[in-house]
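Incident review: delayed structure delivery

Summary: a single-chain prediction request sat in the queue longer than the usual turnaround. Root cause was a stuck worker, restarted by the on-call engineer. No data loss occurred. The affected request and its eventual output are reproduced below so the record is complete for anyone auditing the incident later.

Affected input:
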Amino acid sequence: MSTRTNGPDGFGGQYVDHLLPRQSPTRHDLVLAVIPAVFVLTLVAAVVLDLSLQVAVAGGALAGAVAVIDALFVHPPTRGRRRGGT
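Output delivered after worker restart:
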């Protein structure tokens, strides 16, 4: 006899726990989110300020490069260490 009940999405509770992250995002996860966000913001700024597309892309590339340089060289990843002690 099965006591498992599936939710409206068809997944049982034990499976949903495996889909959700258990830790908050790391600094490097946030850098990966910042890179495309910077491009979107610079394109919006270009439309609002009536700048050329080349200036917007160059600004986004510069800001994205700063984020990557920070993530790789200023605060590099460490082997096997995550926040929270695991």
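Verification: Residues 29-78 form one domain.
Action items: add queue-age alerting; document worker restart procedure.
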